[in-house]
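User: I'm curious whether this sequence folds into something compact or stays loose and floppy. Could you predict its structure so I can see for myself?
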Amino acid sequence: VQLVESGGDSVPPGGSLRLSCAYSGVTLSEYNMRWFRQPPGQEREWVATISSLGTERTTYADSAKGRFTISGDNAKNTVYLQMNRLKVEDTGVYYCNARSRFGLVRDYWGQGTQVTISS
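Assistant: Here's the prediction. I'll summarize afterward.
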């Protein structure tokens, strides 16, 4: 299993970024794909989840609702996180996670991508 994030950058407040997570060794039918972030000096926190089993379903942390959109492209084996109206407090390392939907819990993580929101 491999998860590789990309798309992190430094942008001013109010800007937008799209993060990508290219995955292999997992499928969206067997795994929920999630984005987490870790602000400087703080613990890792959940941002958004996408579940695809029949009907696609997305859920968001309150801090992400209305500004972030998680989506998946099965053909490209990629999950995205579109982030709009970025705030300074969105700064952190963003991680992609795959968690098994069935049986024993299995978690896989990417290496993270840095997002910096600064004027």
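Summary: The chain has a mean pLDDT of 95. Residues 38 and 44 are 4 Å apart (CA to CA).
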